[in-house]
Amino acid sequence: MGKNKWRWGVILDAGSSGTRLHIYRWKDPEKALHSASQEEHGTLPRLMTEKKWTKKIRPGVSTFGDKASEVGPDHLEGLIEHALKYIPKDKVKDTPVFLMATAGMRLLPQIKQTALTREICSYLQQNTDFSLPDCGLHIQVIKGETEGLYGWIASNYLLGGFDNPDKHQHGKGHHTYGFLDMGGASAQIAFAPNMTEAEKHANDLKLLRLRTIDGSPSEYKVFTATWLGFGVNEARQHYVENLQELYTTGSSAEIPDPCLPKGLRTTLEGDVVEKASDLTLLGAGSFDECLRLTYPLLGKDKPCADHPCLLNGQHVPAIDFDVNHFIGVSEYYHTTHGVFGGKGDKAYDFATYQQRVRDFCSQDWDDILPGLEDRKKESRYKNAQEACFKASWMINVLHEGIGIPRIGLEKTPAANVSKEALEHAKQSGLLDAFQPVDKIDDIEVSWTLGKMVLYAAGQIPPKSGDDSLPVGFGSNMVGPTPPDFQFAGSSWRPHGTYPNGTHNDKWDLEAEDLLDKAKSKSTTGLIVFFLAFFLILYVFRKRDRRMRFYSKVITFFRGSGTRRPGSPRKVSGHRSSGGLSSLTNKLFGRPSATYERVLEEGEADQFELGDYDSDDERDREHEPDHSDGSDGASSSSSRFGRTSGLATPKVNVFEPTPSIASNIMSTSGSALNRSGLVVRTESRERLVPNLQMLNAGRRSRAGSPTRQKSPLMSPLQED
Predict the structure, then answer these.
(1) What digits encode the pLDDT tens for the residues 99-158?
(2) Domain limits at 672?
(3) Do the annotations mark residue 38 as ligand-binding?
(4) How many domains does the chain have?
(5) Catalytic residue positions?
(6) Is residue 241 part of a domain?
(7) CA dist 382 to 280, 282, 354, Å?
């Protein structure tokens, strides 16, 4: 279909370290359903994105807390201009724009959050044509639980847990994957507990409702939680504060840091320095000690008001690792695949990973520096100096905090899946309790994708026409729509109508399909035409090929294509000698303005044939000034005759006696041909008296080299 089949969406992920633009595209729901197979009717809308459709700028929106009026021109303008490069102009007004701020903004006081979100919404409404009908819905500081839920949607959407549950059975009727995310300021978890835990902790779950392209609702009950301050940057800050309390004395300005490589000296903020000044951190390079000092940051000693708890005394339903398999994004991926990642690593193996970290962190900083030259210049040093702390923190969160089994050391739970699915899952590591990922099928796993999937699903009309089951999420309560239900932000239009109220039924969609197919065929036909054209040019690039082809065409049109070389032209009263003229005569009759020359009885004896040269070009070269007639028509006729390979016959013209002339005249316009048939000759009365003039104007062909080859031919005698 044409470009009108696409819907677009823009979302800005306003994180703590920067803001990233994401653009997504999907088929119009009505057109997607029209072209979908029966199997695809139960799937969610297919969203697409490209690498060039994303862009990130630094620092984060939260840095404008004290200068809200500058956030538009100094921060958002470049992102909006980038989006407008790729979204068609006629689609901008129908394209929603969202800005969702996360942990960085959550740390700001509420009054600064409100000022920033209002300024952002005002800027976008006044300076863009994007769809932004509700500031409260489109410009938000979202909760960590909401961010985790969007990430859970994105992960299962890309892995196929929604569309093909039978291919992702983990046992116990479970087919979805858990989601782990860690940024700079916070960490999230989202998963669907097993049936036992779901019933036990029903009030702790979120009700998520989606809609497949055929309008059928699908519901999921998901637990989500967030730990603010558990991102790597915030955790590092708390860690340094603990070091200060542990090691600072009145006379020492240098604090040993086991999470830094040996010999590396930095400020408390992480800037590399050559000499100690004020308080500095000096790397000790002890990975085991780093693990021990980061463990207290988990808050495992905090009281748990609602058992069970994981981190910081926060309630989380028990995780059944037989069926709950988690993927980790953001820092979970970068920390395992950055400095310590091995080539070809597909799955996370705790024993292998921990050994790599231990080997790296025990090195001197001077020994590490030469190996950084092959890495990206802008991040190589920063990543290397922070690698040991991040690895230690992630290992503690995963295995001591969440309780994920240590793959490589502890027994991996068995999964109840088909043999084919098991083999595929083993190769990708998705049957492991934990697998870090960055992309799935070349699409980045980001919570922003989950938000847009929800929006696209909200555009689909309900199958029954009843919108009492809206798309969105809220508390897991009895009833169609919980009081705190957050709608997808999109609306559906009844099947068969456009915004202007015009009708669009099945026939319109089929007509549009036919038009697109016709355009496709037209394009294909044009390509074929040009290929054929250039092929003909290639074949006839040589002159001799062109002349042979020209000769055959002329022969066909003159009707001599069936004669053998050297044989006389066959003439009869009502029959042409073949070719195109025969066909036209049969269809339209003989033209009245033409005539045929009639051979009377005995007249054929007066024709003599000489030898001929088959090369048309040689014939012309030797007798350029000779022709069979004095006028242009005669000349043209003679030239056509020569192209057939026959020499022009020599005619002995005679003077008719009066008796012969009277016999000819008495036929009243008719004459007998050699077969005895009557041939109509409408212009005979005019031709007979001037028969003696047939020789007038003819030139002798005695000088022709071709004619002189035959001893039977003699030059015409001129009167």
Answers:
(1) 999 988 998 999 999 999 999 999 999 999 999 999 999 999 999 999 999 999 999 999
(2) 543-709
(3) no
(4) 2
(5) 147
(6) no
(7) 17, 15, 20
